[in-house]
Amino acid sequence: MNFMTVRTLFSTLLLLGLAFAPAVSAAGPTFTARQQERVTPTVRAVSAVAPAVVNITSTLVERRSAREITPFDFFFDMPGRDLRGESIGSGIIIDGRRSLVLTNAHVVNGASSISVRLLDGRTFSADVVGAEPDFDIAVLRLKGAKDLPSVAMGDSTDLMPGETVIAIGNPYGFSHTVTTGVISALNRTIEAEDGVFTDLIQTDAAINPGNSGGPLLNILGELVGVNTAIYDKAQGIGFAIPISKARRVVDEILDQGHVSTPWLALIGQNVDPRTARYLRLPDVEGLLVTEVFKNGPADKAGLRPGDVILELSGNAVTDRDKYLSLLRNHQPHAPVTLKVWRGGSARTFTLTTTDFDDETAESLALRRWGVSVKDGRHGAVITRVKDNSPAAHLGLEKGDTVTAVSGRGVESRRDFLNAFRRDFLKRQILLQVLRGGRLYQARMGI
């Protein structure tokens, strides 16, 4: 099935400790006596929450000055041009006192400037406090904003299929559009071009491009989800991130500036047909475990090299990319269940994830990619290139600056380590490197 995040649809529009704060009381609309007779729970919820729903316009400027290279033409580049466009989205004020807005990461990804407009007509510029594409969550702070309303927090852990929900957003630029529906299902998993997203709420409340990042509310007007994706081949199938999951991500963004990365302390590779035949696998799918780190979660649970991971928490693991995407949707110190093929049959293991910390990531980056980095003015500056490593074979040198990995910008050492955590099992990495004032792109085989 071809799932499409609203970010995908946005591309067609280009060129045209935190405990969430309680709701700030704001004077709602005054209903006439005639209207009072028609005020439903939905009307009441919308009236209470609409002032805290915002429209987001992100301006994107993409610099086209790099070319793809090989080790044989590393010192040639290609001049390019800037591409400029805008994308639209929605958000919800979660802390009026601190002017914090919750939205999707893809709504503001790559934005050079962000404008946020409220229902009362006020417009503010915004900074990104933090964004986590793996969870599609971002937190913005409005500049110079005061006396802001905010949404009341709900609890998504007790949602019920069939329960009425309300979406408010900015579809196709139509400000503060209200749609209603029910919760169609819970704990959905979808595959989008950005990765795999798990534990989603499925709803038939109409969600369109521009709704992304807006609130999904229960009938009490409480925030229970963040609208994030649609199924492009059907009507009435939309998805939202449960607020219980979004809340944990926001807490980490505000507390430490990023979301901790989970891992099971193992390395693996894709299964090829020859290996599948040898292991008597039913399909040429799964992650073949090639290394298990001593005293890590996998080691303690009893996994060993030669095992093949078939499922992670009930979701099929078809290859290493699917494994990483599924694992990233968990958080450190959370339980996961693995279905593992060993000795001609499947068995189940229960593990608790651990934190893929910077020290571990830095050590493995030197070992697998062959580089160490530090913070630089324009990205992550290479401080060491290991002999006979993938980086050395590519021609990278000490002093080069890595500005992007696999299409995602790198502005610091932490960004580089995050990129390694995301891509450390891949066999080929696309790097963007700054050398001598020129940008180059290079594919590094691992």
Features:
29 strands, Pdz3 Domain, Thrombin, subunit H, globular, seven-stranded mixed beta sheet, alpha+beta, six-stranded antiparallel β-barrel, 19% helix, 11 helices, 3 domains, 446 residues
Would you spell out the secondary-structure blueprint of this structure?
Layout (H helix, E strand, L loop, with lengths): L3 E2 H5 L22 H4 L4 H9 L3 E11 L4 E2 L12 E14 L4 E4 L1 H4 L2 E7 L5 E10 L4 E6 L9 E2 L10 E6 L7 E16 L2 E9 L11 E4 L3 E9 L7 E5 H14 L5 E2 L2 E5 L2 H7 L7 E6 L4 H5 L6 E5 L2 E2 L3 H9 L6 E8 L2 E8 L1 E2 L2 H11 L2 E5 L4 E6 L4 H5 L6 E5 L2 E2 L3 H11 L4 E8 L2 E8 L1
Parallel strand pairs: 3-29, 9-14
Antiparallel strand pairs: 1-14, 2-4, 2-6, 4-5, 5-8, 6-7, 7-8, 10-11, 10-13, 11-12, 12-15, 13-14, 14-15, 16-23, 17-18, 18-19, 19-20, 19-21, 21-22, 24-25, 25-26, 26-27, 26-28, 28-29
Helix pairs in contact: 9-11
